[in-house]
């Protein structure tokens, strides 16, 4: 899922996303609550209409942002009091309030409000946060059911079927537990048995822990969750993380990397990353990635895009964001095809070997 | 002509320009000489291929930039020595060197190197600069003819006809003379009689003088130049300047206003300008201009675009640039149609009355 934190995938137009075959995109409850305000989005017909995205949208609950961006937090069983990172204003998030925000936004999939802790927290902190997140999950579920009955959503596609399937928002739980195997195992099992969820989030990974620890946690969760349901690895990832995640049963990803790194000049290619600002690309007539068919690679040379970056031109930000997002979407499509072909294992080994064999380029 | 100073119309994709019906665009010899270097552009196949613009391109000579942006100028009959505004490096522009730069860029229309003076210069300075510009024009013409014989241009469309019509670059002279009627009259007449030019630039206007003075100069030049040849009013304009210029025989314009103002939140509408950042647009469901059919107005509300600006999102810069450029292109198309219909006078009076009648909005 390309990340549209503030109701726009940074530097891209929704039409770019359609052209590159994006289906589901992500928005963020914390950021949209602060700007423009979830009430404004609701008044404008919901997030789909506001940002003109007809496909499915998932909103993150803001748990991660409250614990990473906001300041002066006070946490108790009821919820979290914090200061906005924009204007310092005092805010209070509870599972109920976050569900109200996500209801106002009106996404198709909404994430529970969870208690997020630093990546290398000790077992006691990780257990407390995981247990609290499960208690908050129960409150989220009750609140969203109440809202579905009391605050109907309009169908954003402007063709309202009698049963209005869009009124239902799929609440995803988030499996926490840090890098503690038995906590992950326990959280996944308890959450699985709590309700017939449409899908599952896996949170608190790729936040500074060793890669091997992340892979181990994914394997535990993979075993514990039903194979029939989508699993969403939150905040991941880079191309190699995508492939490693898919090998371990993950279906959905989101990450700011393709757009954020693109705005800094980093380019994903089949042979690893390159930085377009380097002098060696000054007159390079090749596309960013010779095997890519995105609209940047079909049209422009590395020399031109390097020039745009050196001259601080906005088109450069757009072209690299476009290429990097397209790269991840194509990668996910290739992985899906290899699953259908029954050769995920060999395909992914080959892909990773080539991507990692390139001499590491400074980015 | 949308302005693509550094080989990109700021915040837009070449495809956006095609979609809104732009035909000719502008590049700048001074800026492209400094970044990425005209030799780099030449090595990459010329400006058309470099920036992927298949339509006609006009390059400005850099006269205006040398006299406005660069520092520590020394001017004599030979040329101008100055310091780059990017890195302070010492540069020397002569009519011959500027023609070599414009040859390397390979635009369809190239402007002569001229001596530009402040808008309200006295008659003596204005005469000196105008006379020198005409002497430099003669040197430009000799040099571009020499280059056409010695440095053939490749056809950027990659289909090289036997006679390669793209090898010829149309050199436009620039009529100077400040706001001194007889100097304008004299410059236009002398230049007209010097050579069979493909078209004429009108320089040194819209640089701080009264609007009425500009209109008077345009009328003098209009009378002196052949009706059959296009006249290009350099660095102009705003919507109202476009209409006033067309009323006085101008055919071509360029101005950074639509993109630069767009990046600051200013929006051209049939009823004058508005600034999208104002609080009053927070939940405004209307498009930027209800009568506009650009791709921003067909899709997005003022509320959404205001949000993009408040949140510093790049898509906002793109959408307003797109709308404002489309606005000027549509305006020029409407003017052309009114000329064909024989009602330019009444059409332009009505248009200006409506545009100016709106209560002036702070921008």
Helix content of chain A: 40-55%
Sheet with most strands: strand arrangement of chain A: 1-2-6-7
Strand content of chain A: 5-15%
Contiguous low-pLDDT stretches of chain A (5 residues minimum) are none
Distance between the termini of chain A: 24 Å
Radius of gyration of chain A, whole Å: 21 Å
The residue-averaged pLDDT of chain A reads 94
Got a strand count of chain A?
13
Characterization of the model:
2 copies of one chain form a homodimer. Chain A has 363 residues and is α/β, with parallel strands linked by helices. The first copy, chain A, has helices at 14-19, 29-34, 38-43, 47-51, 63-68, 95-105, 123-150, 181-194, 211-224, 239-247, 257-263, 302-310, 314-341, 344-357, and strands spanning 25-28, 57-60, 71-75, 80-83, 90-93, 109-111, 170-172, 174-175, 200-202, 231-233, 252-253, 266-269, 272-275. In chain A, strands 1-2-6-7 form a 4-stranded parallel β-sheet. In chain A, strands 8-9-10-11 form a 4-stranded parallel β-sheet. Chain A has a 3-stranded antiparallel β-sheet with strand order 3-4-5. In chain A, helix 9 links the parallel strand 9 (200-202) and strand 10 (231-233). In chain A, helix 7 packs parallel to helix 8 (181-194), helix 8 (181-194) packs parallel to helix 9 and helix 10 (239-247) runs parallel beside helix 13. The longest helix of chain A has 28 residues, at 123-150. The two termini of chain A are 24 Å apart. The relative contact order of chain A is 0.11. Chain A binds chain B through residues 6-8, 10-15, 35-36, 40, 43-44, 50-52, 282-283, 285, 295, 299-301, 303-304, 306-308, 310-311, 313-315, 317-318, and chain B through 6-8, 10-15, 35-36, 40, 43-44, 50-52, 282-283, 285, 295, 299-301, 303-304, 306-308, 310-311, 313-315, 317-318.
